[in-house]
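Comment thread on ticket #2218

A.B. wrote:
> Attaching the input chain for the structure job we discussed in standup.
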Amino acid sequence: MDNPREEAPPFFNRPHVVVEKIMVGNGVPLGIERVSNSKIGIGGAYGAWGDSYDNDSLSSLVENRLGGPLADAEKMNLAELGFNYRHHLPHLSPEEHVELEIEVGARFLREAARACGWEPSEVEGVLIGVSGPATADYTERIAAKAGIQDSALKVSIHKACDGSVAALHLALNPNLPVNLAGVRNLAEELQGKKVLVGGIEGLSRFISLSRDKYALQLFGNGAGVIGVIPGESMKFLIGKTLEVFDEEGVLAVRMFYPHSRQRVSGQSMIEVTQAGENHIRVAGLMHEPDSEWPVAMDGPMGMVKLFVRSGVQVVTEAYQAYQALIEKLGIPDKSIAVAIVHHANLKINKLKEKHLQREGIRLPMPWVISDFGNVSAASNMIAFLRSLSNLKPGDHVLFDGFGAGTYYDVLALELGG
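C.D. wrote:
> Ran it. Output below, let me know if you need it in another format.
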């Protein structure tokens, strides 16, 4: 993995980031970087909004929100966890938050489309992972504001940090259980079409009402959206998915989206509903906090225990399926060019890497997001875009998504070109 302690500049100071101010409240800075690789026909946009806080200034922000000082034992060593900066918002009204996030989301969709050489009106599908949407029809509203046609399929995926990889899995794998049992088979429907897939996470708003000292230090705003043509620029190879309910509420998350909140033994915790004429909602059950807080964490080590064991299991099964496939295809020397792993924190990813190596599985798992914090469903797409320039036509890429709930999606794909 890359060494996050070799501190990169704040995101807004990167050379290719375009920074503008969105005039909501007293003005909110938004930075977007566009990335494209014409050889494989994939592009996208990623970035963040809100003021940038380094690890030292973040402590003051957290203490201000808590109304009191953090004890030394409560201050996380964020650099060791792979994070140097977070993006947070000033106080805004609920109406201002909605206005801001719709404007932000629309801009990311437009910029991602243009990074692919598409006009927004050409886009035929929008699949967005979002943990706590500012409004239930968020995906519909950002698509409309971006200039995407009403007839385009809109899919909102609420599976916490797994949201964007789950979205990509839905777009590529026609045999995914959700596709086979859901309202429509999205992968069959989107084959050969221009599709935007990503995660847009206004986590500063989401956690601002929390009193959880760890959540307030870990999470921040971020978004990453890529443009793909399923079956052409990305070709599905294998995929695995898993649900393991977080019985103890190690990472409890409030569901700010429609869900029955019913858990039925032996049945999926994911509910697929027709939210509008061209809007599908894929919503996962969460262990919600006992309080009214949006997020409650059992400390950073609780997250390690929560995600590593099942995460290693799913990646191992996916890798074994991948090995069997390339043997069958007569290309046994083919290997994974890069593994795009959710950046929950560096300790989780390094421990997963160590356990996988014990199983004889060695995957390149670069740590490339030190300037955002944990940005939930946005992180996989940001990591992919930061790896995009090094990828070639025909490369195989493994995506590893995991999040609260708990939900896991792991898939391998081949890049076109």
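A.B. wrote:
> Thanks. Noting for the ticket: The first strand starts at residue 18 and ends at 22.
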